[in-house]
Amino acid sequence: MENKEKYALVTGGTSGIGKELAKLLAANQYNLILVSRDQSELQLVAEELQETHQVQVHTILKDLFRRESPFEIYDEVKHMGFVVEVLVNNAAQGAYGEFKDIDINRQLDMIQLNIGGYVTLTSCFLQDMLSRGTGKILNVGSIAGEAPGPLQAVYHGTKAFINTWSSSIQYELKDKGITVTALLPGPTETDFFNKAEMNESRMVQDIPHADPEKVAKDGFDALMSGDAKIISGFMNKVQVGMANMQPDSMAAASMYKQQKPVDRKED
């Protein structure tokens, strides 16, 4: 496929890891379809990437908390006649606090965004990829999916789903010309923690956060190579390795210490 015909669709492509991935795709001459629920941010990022990289950037304003949105995105892309060669499922959110205290509707919205959006968009665009015999999918999971996460129980659960689901479909598609890559970042300098309302946690206050540009580069390189999974950052690899060797109760206790609110009286 000629470069001028290539399109990549990125959800949550206006900030953080998603924006950095969009930059890398544009720099490699992929035309872009950016999905977000913020019109002003979509317009700013689209103009920036078009001017810098001389690619076409189309925007779709959708709220992926809605179950219907992924289907509507697919229909809109098909109506425009674009062929999506690369699908980047990135948009996700967390919610901070004990499970019993967080509004159930917020939890259900998060499951729809973090799981439903990924699964539905992948199901839709995968059919076109299979008919062509080519395509690349990048699912942004998390090292959070490799361990229990007290105070972010549902978020960790959604990322556990994404991590294992990605590995499953990667195997199913291994002889079909389609690659599926899971990117597992650790804590990263994005707006995630602010939206999750966890700025007072040790995860934010005391633990260094990765540069989203570096995380995106790890993910992009793995995507282009067709790798099944990439854990971004040496210390994150160590943490995942340790979590995999611990019983769940010990891993949960360790994660709780990282995520609980800071109490300087303990220091």
> Helix/strand-derived class?
alpha/beta
Do you know the CATH architecture? 3-Layer(aba) Sandwich
Work out the number of β strands.
Answer: 7
Reading off the top of the CATH hierarchy, the class is best stated as: Alpha Beta
Query: Which residue ranges are poorly predicted, with pLDDT under 50 across at least 5 consecutive positions?
Result: none
Helices, by number, come to 10
The string of secondary-structure elements, in order, is EHEHEHEHEHEHHHEHH
Number of domains: 1
**What fraction strand?**
5-15%
Strand order, sheet with most strands? 3-2-1-4-5-6-7
Helix content: 40-55%
* Termini Cα gap: 58 Å
- Per CATH, what is the topology? Rossmann fold
State the gist of this model.
This protein has ten helices and seven strands. By secondary structure, it is an alpha/beta fold. It has a seven-stranded parallel beta sheet, with helices on both faces.
